Amino acid sequence: MEMERRPKHLPQVQALAAIGQCKLMSLWDQLFMHRRQPIAQILLTRNDIADRTQYLNAQNTFIELIHMGVIPIVNENDTLSVAEIKFGDNDTLSAITAAMVQADYLFLMTDVDCLYDSNPRSNPNAKAIEVVEDIGDLVADVSSAGSSVGTGGMATKITAARLATSAGVTTIITRSDKPGNIANIVAYAESKKAEELAAKKSSRQSSTEGSESLRNSTSNLTLEEPSLVKKAVVNEVSSTNGTVSPKLDAPSLPPLHTRFIPDLHPIRDRYFWLLYGLAPHGTVYIDKGAHRALADKAGLLPAGVVEVEGNFAQQEAVRIVVVQRRSKGSFEYEKEDPAPFEVGRALVNYSAAEIKRIRGLKSTEIHGALGYADSEYIALRENIAFGNRTSRPATPSRMSMSQELESRH
Asked: Where is this region: Disordered (predicted)?
């Protein structure tokens, strides 16, 4: 439309989005037509994710399209979105989509190779961060603010990586102007997985078996290769004891990128939706006894509630924050030592005003305080989701991978 810059007035943005959607899908269709690959368009808003039925409908549509061999092109429905229901950036949208379909990988493309501990444009000594095992401990430069026509910068990519890895999705940050990096990175990762599989199968062989029996066993070794980017070659390599064991050809080092390791115990389906699909409208502070009960699969009772913050209604999402009471039965809690910490999200059965009136009470006393009792629980256990706090094993750095490759030649 020959505009010099992105407009700020919402109706203009929405009107341009309606025009752009047609042009964008036409371009995608032309590109994929060369490979005779059918595509589909899915436009989402935050409301589509927040409503459980619509969330499941969207998830089922994704799954069916994939089964049909159709590639979904996903974008935010900017023609309808307003500030209150916007994702705000495509990074968050892509992370939620990846979790919905339980993707193996999520690639977040940007204008730099990877994350750095400082801005590489101003600091020539900036160090690349190639593997992130715990995002909570990450110290990285996030000064990249995104492009003038797009949404999201490095900070939103880290947030998206947190969402995706919690759902078990390996997340990669790499350059957008080198699309071939995607295939190379996946090929390397898949070859490492195949190598681990081969090593596990080899370890099951008895050390007393002859070389002939082991050679026969390697002929039965199968490596899954569901796509063109997955490649692994098995060779027979003599070991020091004269036997033969399967070994994978070491691939060259992958292109520079940052890889976020997925959680060992992924959060999926309803619990992921509770944690990341819903926008919290307030906070419920609970004591450590209530936290232990929730960990044992019990619901949240009024007796364990210390404080309420915000103005929320029934069946709205809230943050669950654990605090230390200053004394038994007190509604005062420690603000610094120990500091409060958020453990998850919940859909509540009572409003903020109602919870303030029944906090600290027994369930049998709810009716007396309110004149009614919709539930004995502030929140049912099935409507409470905890975030992951699982430690991960160490992951080899690029330097250790280089040394490993050199040792093989």
From this structure: 199-221, 389-409
The alpha helices in 205-284, defined as continuous H runs, are: 211-219, 269-272
Category of 153 on φ-ψ map: left (φ > 0), alpha (ψ -120 to 50) or beta = beta
pLDDT tens digits for range 268-294: 999 999 999 998 999 999 999 999 999
Q: Which phi-psi region, left, alpha or beta, contains residue 259 (left: φ > 0; alpha: ψ -120 to 50)?
A: beta
Please state, as a whole number, how many other Cβ atoms lie within 10 Å of the Cβ of residue 384.
Answer: 23
Report how far residue 25's alpha carbon sits from residue 139's, in angstroms, rounded to the nearest whole number: 38
Per the structure block, which two tokens stand in for 303?
Answer: 């007796």
Peptide bond between residue 262 and the one before it cis (omega within 30 degrees of 0): no
Q: How many helices (H) and strands (E) would you count in the chain?
A: 12, 15
Structure tokens at 277: 């699909």
CA 81, CA 75: separation in Å to the nearest integer? 11
Bridge pairing between strands 131-132 and 39-44? unpaired
Q: How many angstroms separate the CA atoms of 202 and 198, rounded?
A: 6
Closest C-alpha to 398, from 263, 254, 261: 254
Contact 279, 48 (CB under 8 A): no
- Amino acid identity of residue 238, one-letter, is S
pTM for the model stands at 0.74
User: Tokens in use for 288?
Assistant: 């450590």
Q: Which of 235, 234, 252, 236 is nearest to 244 (CA)?
A: 236
